[in-house]
Amino acid sequence: MAKIAIITVAAAVSVGLHLVNDLYAPEPEVLYHTAHASAPEFDWHSLEPSTEIKWTSCYNDQKCARLLLPLDYLSEDLSGPTTAIALRMIPARDRTNYRGTVLINPGGPGGSGTDLLARAGKNISTIVGDSFDVLGFDPRGVGASIPTLNCFSSKGQRDIWLTQEGHQFLNTSDEALLGLYRARQRVVGDRCAESDGGEEGIARFMSTASVATDMLKITEKLGQEKLHYWGFSYGTILGQYFTAMYPDKVGRVIIDGVYDAYNYRGALWNSNLLDNEAVINSLFTYCHEAGPLKCALYESSPGKIRERYYRVLDRVERDPIPVPHAEPPLLITRKALVNQIFRAAYKPINTYGTVVDTIRAIETANQTALTALAPKIVDPTECACRTELPQIVENDAFSAIACGDGEERTYDPEAYKAYYADLTSDAPNAGPFWAVHFLQCTEWSVRPKWRYTGPLAAANTSHPILILQPKFDPVCPLRDALAVRERYGGAGLLVQNSYGHCSMSAPSVCTAKHVRAYMEDGRLPEEGTVCEPDELPFVGQVSDARAMSGEDATLSEALRGLSEVVPMFGA
Ligand SMILES: *[C@@H]1O[C@H](CO)[C@@H](O)[C@H](O)[C@H]1NC(C)=O
Ligand SMILES: *[C@@H]1O[C@H](CO)[C@@H](O)[C@H](O)[C@H]1NC(C)=O
Ligand SMILES: *[C@@H]1O[C@H](CO)[C@@H](O)[C@H](O)[C@H]1NC(C)=O
Ligand SMILES: *[C@@H]1O[C@H](CO)[C@@H](O)[C@H](O)[C@H]1NC(C)=O
């Protein structure tokens, strides 16, 4: 059996299904009024929430609004409590051929759409075409939407909590360690139940059914009949729910990097990691293919590179390496290196070089190099694109959404051990990180008021959905995409012959053109379409950039930008 991972990134410990990197931010006290070195931060707090979308200019040429929607869609009382949903939009530049607004979701669950828009909105706009507005929204409980779910009182407090976990893997053969991991999840579960799990507490109203309904309401308020949407990672769960709940409201719906919503709703978390090892092993294959000039770990076969990599891990397990001059100082343990490659597998093209540099620096005991590499040992996906939006703080939305959507699970030691064994046999590296999701849910007690329990399928939709799927995704395997495809009548499938999470992890102008054709004309790729990536890890560019037309070159640049923000589902 295999498992899928959903990645969230925090210090070196948490796991989830996100597109976007760490969501660090200043203390909550200064959330809404921080000035930044470059652009002044928009003051979301000054934006009057309203029951219609009232756009205000923000971030130079963009539009922001806060839309009031019912907190509780099951309530008879329409004047009851509300939630203010933060919207941030890049308007279409081509008004003549205007085609509507595309909503985007970066996954998580718990990722911020306004943050994704800030990082990659222009790139997404280039790909879908100038005739669409691109709109990021913060799902209820998240980011600049109000209220937010945050069960820690400051970022400092959360950071201390996260670093307390230490350097040992979750390991079910070690009862004490298992007890520790479980007790930690109980602490978070109990804190959230206490702070936000009451009658009108936000934790009870964050289910995917509510968010899908928010997307419908946003679409209606925009004056548009049907939803246009591109969702990544957990965003594919949101897309599956929406399409199942509102099949006649599908305009253009793309789900990219698919997790099977039945597995998700069962709170099983055991399909994600099926292809995880294949993605990790591609490091050795591409290093060999690229040759000694492009890969410093080159050996005469991929197997020998693999042995060399694991030899370093074994050594570090016996003798952890202190890096005292890093800021903050770092201890390189086996767990730190496995965490590095687990994260790197989300976007191999951008990160495998760092993994090789790390191993080389350890082999040569080069402290100068290790000191410089330290932040990328902790998180190789950390990128220069980080914008540090002050309203984006790490939150507890993952548990509220994923555990609340899922069936209620109680902890059973034997069942958990079997599950863990299954997960780690598929994915010895990622399994111990991924297995935490299950504990997150057994120790989470808040139940949502509204949980969608109908079929996650639709024989007929007002327009067929489009599935984009890398052939080898570390946390959302092709097998899930194929299963989901069968459930949605007429759905199109484009497989991208690449490694990494979601199509954007490997730029492919071929894929981008299919996205454009679907968005603009509703055209699906022909049955069996496979797109090749334009770039490979270590090897580099494989398509001839000089031969590209101007339009292809523009797409290629947009794809490169987008590849920086690959969602970190379950990390
Ligand atoms: C895409 O993203 C990159 C990096 O963020 C940026 O430099 C580039 O200008 C963007 N351009 C377009 C047209 O998408
Ligand atoms: C798990 O714990 C057992 C018992 O302490 C130990 O023998 C084993 O090596 C550990 N496994 C891992 C992957 O650390
Ligand atoms: C150690 O790493 C630094 C930085 O990467 C490099 O400049 C230097 O040449 C390396 N030293 C040795 C002895 O390899
Ligand atoms: C599917 O839905 C479309 C659009 O609503 C409609 O035209 C078509 O007849 C439906 N097909 C079936 C088999 O129900």
Principal-axis shape: globular
The CATH topology of one domain is: Rossmann fold
Spatial sequence of strands, sheet with the most strands: 2-3-4-7-5-8-9-12-13-14
What class, by secondary structure content?
A: alpha/beta
Helix content: 25-40%
Q: Would you identify the regions where 5 or more consecutive residues have pLDDT less than 50?
A: 1-15, 19-38
Give the termini separation.
Answer: 20 Å
Description:
With 571 residues, the protein is of the alpha/beta class. It has a domain at 57-148 and 202-270 and 456-565: Rossmann fold. Helix content is 39%, strand content 14%. A ten-stranded mixed sheet has the order 2-3-4-7-5-8-9-12-13-14, sandwiched between helices. The longest helix is centred in the N-terminal third of the chain and has 22 residues, at 175-196. The protein starts with 16 loop residues before the first strand and ends with a strand. One 2-acetamido-2-deoxy-beta-D-glucopyranose is lined by residues 364, 366, 368-369. One 2-acetamido-2-deoxy-beta-D-glucopyranose binds at residues 169, 171, 173-174. Residues 1-16 form the signal peptide. Pfam families: Abhydrolase_1, Abhydrolase_4. Residues 101-258 form the AB hydrolase-1 domain.
